[in-house]
Amino acid sequence: MSKILDGVVVLDLTRFFSGPQCTLLLAAMGAEVIKIDDPKGGDPTAFAPPYDGPGGVSFERRSDKDMGLAYLKRARGKKSVTLDLKSDQGRRIFLDMVAKADVVVENFRCGVASRLGVDYAALRQANPEIIYCALTGYGSSGSAKNDKAYDLMVQAAVGLMSMTGQPGEPPVKTASALSDAISGVFAAHGIVAALLHRERTGEGQAIDVAMSDSLFSLIFDEPIDCYERLNLAPRQGNRIMRFSPFNVFQASDGWVAIGAATHSEWLALLEAMGRPDLKDDANMMQIGWRIVHNAEVDAVVTQWTASRTKDAIVEALASAGIACSPVRSADEVMRWPQLLEREMIVRLVNPLTGTSAAASAPGFPIKFSRTPAGYDSPAPVPGAHSEEIFARYANLSAADVRRLRGEGII
After folding, report:
1. Which residue intervals of 322-375 are DSSP H helices?
2. Which fold has domain 9-218+340-406?
3. 272-291 pLDDT, tens per residue?
4. Active-site hit among 37, 43, 180, 213
5. Is 280 marked active-site?
């Protein structure tokens, strides 16, 4: 069966995480994603630690077949060529490719694409129907557009770090590079929408995605601008200000997450804990009071969980219709049947060894009922598809590619 984006050609100029995350999702849906890297430096993650190789995972490159784990994850399902966009000939070859492509994705710093002569204004001359997506830290407009950004800075800039962690503790970022990941998702969403628009109208367009916009749009569902007026600390830990209880609680053998989002769930929790007496407590029956006096509510729940195992707590609360989960370690997550059954943990392949890597990667999270989706090929050896791609999209012969490679253009 065909995938949804079969036939769509994506030229991928991205590096690190946000852009590769976008094109990874497009590749899973069937797009032919062609990674284009500089022949001198290549993809900075391809041979960067941590590595996978014949000796397993390591922070040291112990063999010439060791490759970067980040690259093995993010380049799945893609093809790879190298091309010097700073050279006139390299840029001409790229424009020839653009003329036959559908999408170009880049995550250069703001202004770099213009200096290289590969911005939207230049590319639409080669292909008026091209869809051009630029991912940047703070966007292509605004007073901060030229500021350099990594995920840490974006989480700080939009206020997430001021809200993450426990009350009274220093700012802390989320464990993963959340702004990179989510901006890649938004970019892929925007590209699919632009492809639909082009199908209807014949018009290409430019898409401007900022890591800061993407992350802020996620956190501002919470009324963070009202916290001070509600006398709430900026850092709420695991809490959500609309519910109580809503936290992690210590069991006899670890931790469990428990939340009661409705009045009926609170009543069911009291029954499950053997505390129906609290139904006669007018304060405990008011959600507003429980939110303000959350510590007292948490103490009631902890008194019950502390003497029970995680499994016993989960079983009891699941029977009562209450949301509950053990707090799993990374090793436990890798063994969780739910993720395995939904093919969300898949084995990586190292293209230099041709064997399974010692690490896994996420599967494709969207399950379509009529069309397949997923990563059909491992990350490519850098430059592995140069002859094939340049022949198809730039009319270069194998001899041309060899000559240009010798000149450092490819």
Report:
1. 330-334, 337-341
2. Rossmann fold (3.40.50)
3. 999 999 999 999 999 999 99
4. 180
5. no
